[in-house]
Amino acid sequence: MVKDITPELAQAVINGKFLHCKDIHDHTCEYEAIERFFKVMNIAWKFYLPIHAIPTLTFQFKLLKKRPFQFMYKLSKNVLRSCLFLATYIAVFRYGLCFFKNLRGKIDRRVVIYSGFISGFGLCWEPQGRRTELALYFLPRFIEAFWAWCKKRQWVTPIPYGEVILFAIAMAILMYCYQNEQKNIKKTYLSIFKYFWGEN
């Protein structure tokens, strides 16, 4: 079980002091990671079920009527894979914090970076198409965070209406693909585009 970190311990970490694992959790680091894995699994299905079910019911309702068992199997499999991804990601990250902290003998940014990197391999649970979706979802957020980091250090200067320019470029690429490369657009997205923009 994870302990509450007191203000004194938090301040000690900020001041660069080492924080022992016994100050953070009761059991071993491995036990804590496994316990965290199952806790996240128990929570994750509650929001992954509607995330997968709503688009599937909306765009593949005919499959449900024709082959209900195949539909339910596919839906259950996708929900399970997403739950495994999130649970693995969090459990590995938490374990990585302990492992790299103890390996390096200190708490610094590298501990978080290393832990975040190895936890990212939890994405292997997801199917190829879903991996691409998640990668493309996080890429703009990484770019935004990296830009803010550079701007904070005055390595770059703000671009007037930069968000509008990026949006216009993204829409241009999207419209090009819709007009000329529809095979590269996911079927669920393509059906939405056709609904609003009409057939090409």
Automatic annotation (TrEMBL):
Transmembrane annotation, as ranges: 79-99, 111-128, 159-178
Keywords: Membrane, Transmembrane, Transmembrane helix
Keyword Transmembrane helix carried by entry: yes
Keyword set includes Transmembrane: yes
Name of the protein in question: Uncharacterized protein
Protein species of origin: Euplotes crassus
Lineage, uppermost ranks: Eukaryota, Sar, Alveolata, Ciliophora, Intramacronucleata
